[in-house]
């Protein structure tokens, strides 16, 4: 008998410990984590850095998603990026032939788990407080950064899923 599909994360109710206004952020990040796990299961590492039609490689998306979450959550905390974060950003597009897709998926999952812990610590009364993005110090807010981390993650998960399908059917 086939197993019934699981409801999407947002349909399962509140994520324990997450402030009410940040539930959509948690839902989107956790949904991304689940979808990446499903689509990357059994993925052939030969395709990790292929760019069909010039699109970004699956490996790039996996690295980029984790990096975006890390950077935007850092800014949401009112901090500047570290040199290690800048190094990671510069290396996101670089092929890493020595790493397996499972390692990149595990790193992404770990970063989502860390983000969930961080969301539990956010004071809802601070959500509209000004934060600054990047070296240009573009003004935004805590909630703007956290929401964009979730939205940007979802965008790249969609691109990753399409690229997985493209490379596996060549």
Automatic annotation (TrEMBL):
<dbReference type="InterPro" id="IPR024775">
    <property type="entry name" value="DinB-like"/>
</dbReference>
<dbReference type="Pfam" id="PF12867">
    <property type="entry name" value="DinB_2"/>
</dbReference>
<feature type="domain" description="DinB-like">
    <location>
        <begin position="44"/>
        <end position="160"/>
    </location>
</feature>
<protein>
    <submittedName>
        <fullName>DinB superfamily protein</fullName>
    </submittedName>
</protein>
<dbReference type="InterPro" id="IPR034660">
    <property type="entry name" value="DinB/YfiT-like"/>
</dbReference>
